[in-house]
Amino acid sequence: MSVLAPEKPQRQKRPLKQPDFWTIVSLALFALFALFLIYPLWEVLKESVVNGEGEFTLEYFVTFFAKNYYFSTIINSFVLSIAVTLVSLAIGIPFSYFYTYFKLRGQRLLFIGAVLSCMSAPFIGAYAWILLMGRSGLVTEVIQTLLPWVEVGSIYGFGGLVLVLSLKLFPLVSVYMNGAFRSVDTSLLEAASLMGSTGLRRILTVTLRLTVPTMLAASLLVFMRTFADFGTPLLIGEGFRTFTVEIYNQYLGETGTNHNFAAAIGVIGVVVTAIVFWFQKYAAGKFTFTLKSSSPVVRIKPRGIGGVLIYLYMYALVGLAFLPQVYVMYLSFRNSNSSVFLPGYSFDNYLQAMDRLLVRSTLNTLWFGTISMIIIIVVAVLIAYLVVRRSNAVNNFIDTMAMIPYILPGAVIGIGLVVAFNKQPLALTGTAAIMILALVIRRMPYTIRSATATLMHIPMSMEEASRSLGASKFKTFRAITVPMMANGITSGAILSFVAIVPEMSAGIILYNTPTITLTMSAYVAITRGNYGLACAFATVLTVLTAIVLLVYLRFTREEDVKM
Length: 563
Hints:
Number of helices: 25
CATH topology of the largest domain: MetI-like fold
Order of helices and strands: HHHHHHHHHHHHHHEEHHHHEEHHHHHHH
Strand content: under 5%
CATH architecture of the largest domain: Orthogonal Bundle
Distance between the termini: 85 Å
CATH class of the largest domain: Mainly Alpha
CATH superfamily of the largest domain: MetI-like
């Protein structure tokens, strides 16, 4: 008799857990950032430590620090950025204070004029100031004729750079500080008045102290914009050389190029900006608090001699800042012969521009900007949702990677993309794709921060209610979350678009004739001495920027930036 052994129960295989939609999105975004941002930056770093024979070397860094001719460019950029930041704060904070707390006539006009002066192409203001206050400029000649004993200061060099860049960038301080001043609780100001702190003392000891975090954020933005500026130092820097111009000279210079050395200078620039960024974050961390006004700011009408001085300050500052654009528009209708403007007015400059790629430049500017903005919106919404609703180490790392371009000079991004994608299987150099890619990388942080801030204020209960009614996660995201984020998305996207339109520092390295934009067309015309043609391109660019800004104000109805 045989005894049958009991059969062992078979283990049931557990079905493999399928990754959900958001996990796939996280992995996809991580891969995209690794390919199009981290990989190009790695190529720049590799280019800076490899010689022509492919051998490891630090000779380019040694050359940079050993020769004062090169090392001074970083010092000059650093000193210039600090000076422009301090001057921008000095003129931008009073402008914002008067704008916020006083009921001024033409208030919207002041805001549009200030922001338009800031959103123009980097070199247009410098070029216009040369026409106004250069050695043969209009203002220079008038002063020398009427007041021959008065010595007219030069617009060239360090002083001219500080003047031009400060007038261009102080609106960045203003639009940030507008929101901060509106957020100051008026009860705190009333309490300070009861304790004897009034007037200027109250502004310095209470109001400004409460807005320090915003002031530091605005300072960082002005510093980064100045540090990365290429067009202004190129045109009016003369003996005052900056590192961005040196990168251009080493990469595309007419007297010889050294791509490895250009990459090394770019790496040093990234290190400097990263140190400044982390210092700003550390300083801002010392002033971490939340402002929320219990009652709206009540604007008062300026009266007496003080009111006259306020109006004079506001309109004179905006008029001075916007003067270059107005003068360029005026010159675009003047007859000209290359670099000489002749008597009489006509549309010849615009007709000449029509023959010199005006249509292509305008279409490229709009096409590249629109495609870039669509990509930015999609990526920004996805990242905002991952960071706010599904926060984890991977998603937070993606958010950090997305903010890296905020501190990167555009020239470094341009070099990285050329080095990384000049060969198969992704040979993008010279194509529209690489121009769009550069625009997306450079301007995405604006929309991400705006979308993230908006989503943080949307209650989770709205999405939970949708899920409880049977809607899937994706349908809830598409039909509930995204529409509720619309204002923040629109605000950040249009702000990104306004910054995309005049983009130059990366485009100067990446563009060619088929992919030329309005900014590059104006720059090429200036370098070739055709000033009337340059004015025509610049005017079209300014008008286009104004239209985009008006659309921004129409959709947001706001006069401050929340980032």
